[in-house]
Write a structure and sequence with these properties.
globular; mainly alpha; 123 residues
Length: 123
């Protein structure tokens, strides 16, 4: 996946599309996170990003970037289908890495703590 494709995925969208993305992410995130846990080496950051995206105190632009990346992550049929063991989440990793790098300064300690707790509870 090249930078242009990642950029297209993370492009800003209107409020209606962002609301759809948020609903999709809320509905599918944990199921996808469980399936990807062994293939995504920075799952704690992904989960912290999830909490950051759902935090109404997070700036709108940051929420949009995170919801776009997480929305792509939860789609079962993306550039490389997630069911392909070993490579299925490689495109998701590229998108998530770009998004998390761009917004890292907006992830608060509370988001990281919530991620650790959620992952400990799931383990």
């Amino acid at each position: 996946m090249d930078e242009a494709q990642v950029g297209e995925i993370l492009e800003p969208v209107g409020a209606e599309e962002e609301a759809r993305r948020e609903e999709r992410v809320r509905r599918r995130f944990w199921r996808t996170a469980k399936a990807a846990a062994r293939q995504v080496p920075f799952m704690e950051d992904v989960v912290a990003g999830y909490y950051c995206a759902l935090d109404r105190d997070t700036p709108v632009r940051v929420r949009g970037v995170l919801l776009a990346a997480l929305g792509y992550f939860v789609l079962p049929a993306d550039t490389i289908p997630d069911v392909l063991v070993g490579i299925g989440f490689t495109d998701d990793i590229a998108v998530l890495t770009a998004a998390l790098t761009a917004i890292r300064s907006h992830m608060r300690p509370a988001h990281r703590l919530a991620a650790r707790r959620a992952l400990d509870d799931a383990g």
